[in-house]
Write a structure and sequence with these properties.
By secondary structure, the chain is of the alpha/beta class. It is about 40% helix and about 20% strand. The protein has a six-stranded mixed sheet, sandwiched between helices. The chain has a five-stranded parallel sheet with strand order 3-2-1-4-5, sandwiched between helices. This is UDP-2,3-diacylglucosamine diphosphatase LpxI.
């Protein structure tokens, strides 16, 4: 099978491409301009194109004989007004209608449907790299104490309450106080904002969970070593991620950074964790 990989930023797309090669797949990479930032991807057959040039991308993928796509890597959500869409992308935006202005999950589900109509099957990057998600348990550092566990539980409650609104995947909680909830700004900006709101005393926790209805093929929660660094700079004590559903972008690099910074990283099954609290 020949895979088309639409690559955003960060180290994860290169890990996925290498895993696909190891499984015997050919890989063709579309470097999304203004998003991709890993020079390792240029070692693969590739083109570089802006997001708005969807028609050009589709034509090249077809010319390469690609039927399966993987979308991964950091990307910010662009306004349709700044995309400078080509004819194909303009038609897609028109078909998406109100979904363009809805939450990420609604938009991405609709977009995957359109790619399916174009003859492409979208597969999850995790299916190529199962080790990118973690089983439940303590991954690094000392187990969270009673206060940290209470903060994690508070974070679970907040994210579950917001899930139907398709808002964000992360929350920062310190001593029971919600310092910030992730929206369109992303996790790094959330952590920067939380740093300015931190209280004296024991540091808080970043909790990152998938929404129950989340489209995990293209929008799974992701944490990496940069997340750990920013969490430490915000004065947090640890990070709780959802077991089996949150991607560890740079694998061991994330855990090494956590050990260096003295943060715990724990993978949880939210409902099980809540029952045990």
């Amino acid at each position: 099978m020949k895979l088309g990989l639409l690559a955003g930023g960060g180290p994860f797309p290169a890990r996925v491409a290498e895993a696909a090669l190891a499984r015997g797949h050919e890989v063709f990479v579309v470097l999304l301009r203004d998003f991709h930032d890993d020079p390792a991807l240029r070692a693969f057959p590739h083109i570089e194109e802006r997001v708005g040039a969807g028609g050009t991308i589709i034509q090249r993928l077809r010319a390469e004989g690609i039927t399966h796509l993987v979308l991964c890597g950091k990307a910010k959500r662009l306004s349709p007004l700044t995309l400078w869409p080509d004819a194909w992308m303009a038609k897609v935006i028109a078909r998406l209608g109100k979904a363009v202005f809805a939450g990420d999950d609604t938009l991405l589900r609709n977009f995957i449907g359109i790619l399916g109509e174009e003859g492409f099957e979208v597969i999850a990057p995790q299916s190529l790299l199962p080790s990118s998600t973690a089983a439940a348990g303590l991954l690094s550092g000392e187990a969270p104490d009673e206060m940290a566990r209470a903060d994690i539980l508070r974070g679970i409650g907040v994210l579950r309450a917001l899930a139907d609104q398709d808002v964000g995947q992360s929350v920062v909680v310190q001593q029971g106080l919600v310092l910030g909830i992730e929206a369109v700004e992303g996790t790094d900006a959330l952590l920067a904002r939380a740093a300015s709101l931190r209280r004296d005393g024991p540091g808080g926790v970043l909790v990152k969970l998938a929404k129950p209805q989340q489209e995990l093929r293209v929008d799974a929660p992701v944490v990496g070593s940069i997340t750990v660094r920013h969490a430490a700079e915000a004065g947090l004590r640890g990070i709780a991620v959802e077991a089996g559903r949150t991607i560890l972008a740079d694998g061991e690099g994330l855990l090494a950074e956590a050990r260096k910074r003295g943060l715990f990283v724990i993978a949880i099954e939210p409902e099980t964790f809540a029952r045990s609290a």
